[in-house]
Amino acid sequence: MTVPTETLSPPSGKKSLILNAFVEMWKYFNVPGPHLCQPSPQRTPVILQAGTSKAGKTFAAQHAEAIFVAGHSPAVVAKSIAEIRTLAQEQFERDPQSIKFLALLCPLLGRTEEEAREKFQSYRRLGSIDGALALFGGWTGIDLDTYGDEEELRHVESNAIRSAVQGWSKATPEVATWTKSTVGQHITVGGLGATPVGTAEQVADEMDHWVREADVDGFNLGNISGESVWEARAEGATGRSSGFEISLACGR
């Protein structure tokens, strides 16, 4: 909608300033001036959905064009991806492959695997366990502070906690006991997503593994520090799968 032209009174001796004001009028919000986002090629907003609750899956299957998923291993998200694709096809008559799934991934790269793992441990030492547990509570609605410091979380009554811990156990079988401190340390780097650590070639192979096992179409890359991903430098490596190519550079 075009707002009537306004004439601003100028200081003495100056020309009048004519303003044409435009306001984008929408059902739930108004934007003063031109629309703030560049239009997509399809001319309508891209619907990116997150959440794999029953209602979230149904909404995604009906409306979403891209879906954000997170898990510490491909097996954790593969079931949800398969369910949404099936639901989209059978209930909403959509092409299941037209929906693109983006997995959260926080890669940590080094020139060698040893360098990458040393970097990972240094970042982990900088993390706050209490802060990580607070984030976990905000993300999941689960307050782990109600459990004892040494209580094994795989044996608690909460199905949600047991399910989450089982997923982490599959991704990191070397962890023998899962307490709230272990959970806090585990998500200090990478949050609820996977954190592949290694050379560029190793990380590319892991991404390729996600594509093949979980049926993801791409990745939403997380960042640990200002230099860990975005300012990575090296000759890099390439991982390939059917119709999918990944190019990565190695961290400094």
UniProtKB/TrEMBL annotation:
Keywords, sorted A to Z: Flavoprotein, FMN, Monooxygenase, Oxidoreductase
The keyword Cytoplasm appears for this protein: no
A molecular function GO annotation: oxidoreductase activity, acting on paired donors, with incorporation or reduction of molecular oxygen
Pfam families named among the record's database cross-references: Bac_luciferase (PF00296)
Ranges for domain Luciferase-like: 29-213
Protein's UniProt keywords contain DNA repair: no
Designated name of the protein: Luciferase-like domain-containing protein
